[in-house]
Specification:
By secondary structure, the chain is of the alpha+beta class. The chain has three domains: 33 residues, no CATH class; 40 residues, no CATH class; 94 residues, His-Me finger endonucleases (His-Me finger endonuclease fold). The mean pLDDT is 81.
């Protein structure tokens, strides 16, 4: 059986008091009183029309001036640029990861430096090593994709740069020389008829 003194003393509250803290208030009202010096939560003023946030450094920011992360606007674009520049200045070695392309899928993923890729691209004159044609596949229907880096599976040995069609063809045949010879034989036999 509960006695009147077991309930929170805040007006119109029917919750049990917080006995662990030895308080005469329930947990909710005890926390509110310690934070806001009142049993009620103070109302926050709304932002003016068209303002997404108020930056501590730059003041009011519109939606176009704010960086969106996930579901809410959390940083002013100018603050984001400043923090990015500080990060680059404080971590010069971390910037090196941008000078690499990742090739393949884990666990066979390898890294190739952009310098090495550019050297291979110049050696091949920007053409596929098998069909001697430039890449025709588009990336998001805009720019042509870069040539795929062909490497021997299980090792980091890079064999050359291939167009998407040649790379997929070799990959589907499992890099098997016997299957490739069999495919050549098949095509020669079918073309003689």
């Amino acid at each position: 059986m509960t006695i009147k003194s077991d309930f929170c003393r805040a007006p119109d509250c029917t919750r049990l008091r917080d006995k662990k803290q030895g308080s005469s208030l329930c947990v909710m009202h005890r926390v509110r009183r310690s934070r806001y010096k009142s049993f009620d939560i103070p109302l926050r003023p709304g932002l003016p029309e068209g303002i997404a946030m108020i930056c501590i450094n730059h003041g009011e920011r519109t939606i176009n001036q704010v960086y969106k992360s996930g579901t809410k606007y959390n940083r002013c674009l100018e603050c984001k640029k400043i923090s990015y520049q500080k990060h680059i200045k404080n971590n010069p070695n971390k910037r090196m990861t941008r000078n690499f392309y990742f090739v393949g899928k884990p666990p066979n993923r390898i890294k190739i430096s952009k310098i090495h890729y550019d050297e291979l691209f110049k050696q091949q004159n920007g053409l596929c090593k098998i069909c001697n044609k430039p890449e025709t596949m588009k990336h998001n229907n805009k720019n042509a994709k870069r040539l795929a880096v062909d490497h021997k599976k299980g090792t980091e040995k890079i064999r050359g740069l291939l167009c998407q069609n040649c790379n997929v063809g070799i990959g589907n045949l499992g890099d098997s020389i016997e299957l490739l010879k069999s495919a050549i034989k098949y095509l020669e036999e079918s073309n003689t008829d």
